DNA sequence: CCCTGCTTCCTAGGACTCCTAGCAATATAC
DNA sequence: GTATATTGCTAGGAGTCCTAGGAAGCAGGG
């Protein structure tokens, strides 16, 4: 009988596929074994436990997403870069909901270090070069971008915007406009936050 | 033998408690039965399935959170209200991580209608009265607030800000400043987004 | 007081998932 | 072609979800 030829890479890829189909929480060792035509016990030669499966999806997704963002960012700057960056995230989440969810699983320090997580924050910082923010404002801005984009995508995915006539796309582009303005009018201190306000 | 006295209310409360302790995904019918000193099969007289358990936690959390937000908002306006609103969310998420997670589970239309979801969007809109935004800008702004606050809280909860010297609290208050400025400089159209920009 | 009926809780058991232990088969390296 | 490491197997235990059907506690009216 020929072997199924299971490897961690093929396993992670299949798990990612499955996550997109049925959601990350329904990625199961048994189902994966079924898809490879193998008994579930056999998979434990390749992975330690079910959790590792999800971690591997996370690492894979983080890398894929970083590649996409990098491609989207190439040759762009300023608001153009901001929009491309944001759309890369949102489009990826739409195409690969399970993988995107995996993006949020907590990784232990070593795994995180070996992952594309650093590339993500580096690229976010690269965008902010167009807005000339010094530390620690830059870090705060990185967090603002991450929060806003992730929050929007996450709420949209959870169906939060479905029961209202206003389309999510319109809101999205308006949010991007607003973030762009906010980054340019970055408040120096809380007390003079309205310094740049129009009369 | 005396009865355990299980009711859906006590069940939902216990499930919420458990969710805060071990995470929503680990809220299990068996564990709950164990805590009530009852066989797991007995709980199915009160709930239909495990999913309903999570839905009930969601509804409970939504209501609790709405109460808190309402209390925080009382007597405040403008940026004051914005900050109180945002802190109510973040504090609740810190105190009740499992319940907060439940807040994001998708509810079927009837359940959603009967839940406090409407109160949430109403209160968000109430805050925006301080910034005089007409529709559809108001809806977009509601979504911006929801996205930014939920995104921040969600990333913070997932440990995204832990591996960096800059404290999450500082970034949070800076994010609030920025959102306040953004709401006041709301871009009329994408093309003249920088109308209110300082020289 | 006891009977009737409703609710709560039980036992029994099936299906599925996760995971371990130990063994067999197969590919690879020499 | 044989040795070795890898890959997959059977067997089985523990935990969870859920159904079916029956018993025990609790209410009300006679």
Automatic annotation (TrEMBL), chains A, B:
Chain ranges of the HTH tetR-type domain: 5-65
SUPFAM superfamilies xref list: Homeodomain-like (SSF46689), Tetracyclin repressor-like, C-terminal domain (SSF48498)
Domain of life: Bacteria
Membrane spanning stretches: none
The entry's DNA-binding region: 28-47
Signal peptide: none
Descriptive protein name: WHG domain-containing protein
InterPro entries in UniProt: Homeodomain-like_sf (IPR009057), HTH-type_TetR-like_transc_reg (IPR050109), HTH_TetR (IPR001647), MT1864/Rv1816-like_C (IPR025996), Tet_transcr_reg_TetR-rel_C_sf (IPR036271)
Record key words, sorted: DNA-binding, Transcription, Transcription regulation
């Amino acid at each position: 009988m020929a072997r199924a030829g299971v490897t961690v890479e093929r396993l992670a890829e299949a798990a990612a596929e499955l996550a997109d189909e049925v959601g990350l929480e329904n990625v199961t060792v048994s189902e994966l074994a079924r898809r490879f035509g193998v008994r579930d016990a056999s998979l434990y030669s390749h992975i330690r436990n079910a959790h590792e499966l999800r971690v591997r999806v996370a690492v894979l997704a983080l890398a894929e997403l970083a590649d996409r963002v990098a491609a989207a960012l190439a040759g762009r700057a300023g608001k153009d870069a901001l929009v491309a960056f944001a759309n890369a995230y949102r489009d990826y989440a739409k195409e690969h909901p399970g993988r995107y969810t995996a993006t949020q699983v907590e990784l232990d320090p070593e795994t995180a270090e070996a992952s594309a997580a650093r590339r993500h924050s580096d690229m976010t910082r690269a965008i902010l070069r167009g807005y000339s923010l010094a530390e620690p404002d830059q870090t705060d801005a990185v967090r603002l971008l991450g929060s806003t984009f992730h929050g929007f995508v996450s709420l949209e995915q959870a169906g939060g915007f479905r029961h209202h006539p206003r389309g999510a796309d319109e809101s999205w582009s308006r949010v991007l406009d607003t973030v762009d303005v906010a980054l340019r009018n970055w408040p120096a201190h809380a007390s003079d936050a309205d310094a740049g306000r129009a009369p």
